[in-house]
Amino acid sequence: MARLQSIVLVLVGTLTLGLGVAQASLPQAASEALASAEQYMAEALATYPRQYPDRPLWQRAFAEGRRAVSLAPDALEPARFLAEAYSRSNWYGPAWNAWRDYLRRGGTVARDREAQALIADVGHELGYGAYSRGDLELALEYYRTITDLVPDDVNAHVWSGRILIETERPEQSIPSWQRVLELDPADERAAYFLELAREQATWGPAAVTAFREGVARYEDGRLSEAAERFARATTINPEYHQAWAWLGRVAFERGQYADARRHYTRAAELEPGNETYAFFRAEATRRAGS
Predict the structure, then answer these.
(1) DSSP, residue by residue, 182-245
(2) Do 143 and 163 contact (CB within 8 A), yes or no?
(3) Is residue 133 within 8 Å of residue 101, measured between CB atoms?
(4) Distance between CA atoms of 277 and 280, rounded to whole angstroms?
């Protein structure tokens, strides 16, 4: 029992560090309620191996925290406490709303690493839940809020970029992937998706999908299927010079030199400075015999 009490005292001291000066400016009743709420939270963290909001100590912490808010409705400290308590008890919905309320009241987390970590944890739980339910816009809202408040949270940038790619907004996803690479230059996943996003922003998601499917089938030796995908890409976006060139490549390798000449001619018209296109157009012309 003595050991538990000592743990509680340490936790109370840690949790209230940085709030002591601010609490001094609270009305006495609000300050006492907040101190009581913090003690209940510390006891809950020391007592329960897993934290759930319906456990008695958490219920007491919430009640005292709400009482502190009602006694000092313009103060930031009680509002931040409730946000922290809801977060630490894994009560995600109220936690998210409480952090938003704290920020609306004028609170800031710019230099509050503890708050940032809690916000990120809560936001990721809610974001992934929304994504799993198929509500991608709500999920994106959670992840973007995390990136605004916790700019170095890599996973929030990843999920933002991923959702924007999946919802065919590649150009908007580019800053997300760039930020991931700024934070982790070795992230091959981000490098891949940044390249994909740039391609899709240039040629359109559907055209790029068809083109990449064509490349995959070409590498597997399935030339007829590859040609169909490249042709589809040129139909979706007639300006897609790479798709025309690959269509010409497949025709060339199949000995269809007249077709290869036509496809490479179109590719060269779209990108006049490309020496590869010009070479294979000339070679296809020579082999076609005209």
Answers:
(1) HH-TT-HHHHHHHHHHHHHHHH-HHHHHHHHHHHHHHHTT-HHHHHHHHHHHHHH-TT-HHHHH
(2) yes
(3) no
(4) 5
pLDDT band with cut points at 50, 70 and 90 for residue 290: low
Contact between residue 107 and residue 79 where contact means Cβ atoms under 8 Å apart:
yes
pLDDT in tens, 127-162: 999 999 999 999 999 999 999 999 999 999 999 999
Domain boundary among 167, 188, 203: 203
Cβ contact 222:248 at 8 Å: no
The CATH number assigned to the domain holding 268 equals: 1.25.40.10
Which amino acid, residue 130?
A
- CA gap 175, 165 in Å, rounded: 12
Q: Which long-range contacts (CB under 8 A, 24 or more apart) does 257-263 make?
A: 257/284, 257/285, 257/287, 257/288, 258/284, 258/288, 260/284, 260/288, 261/285, 261/288
Q: Could you tell me the pTM of the whole model?
A: 0.85
CATH number at residue 85: 1.25.40
Place of tokens 């029992």: 1
Looking up tokens 């269509």 gives: 247
pLDDT in tens, 93-133: 999 999 999 999 999 999 999 999 999 999 999 999 999 99
Domain-embedded: residue 4: no
Q: What is the DSSP letter of 269?
A: H
Q: What is the dihedral of CA 29, 5, 79, 111, to 10 degrees?
A: 130
Measured distance CA(7)–CA(130) in Å, rounded: 37
- Tell me how far apart the alpha carbons of residues 103 and 173 are, in angstroms, rounded to a whole number: 26
Domain that holds residue 246: 209-288
Asked if 68 and 30 count as a contact pair (C-beta separation under 8 A), the reply is yes
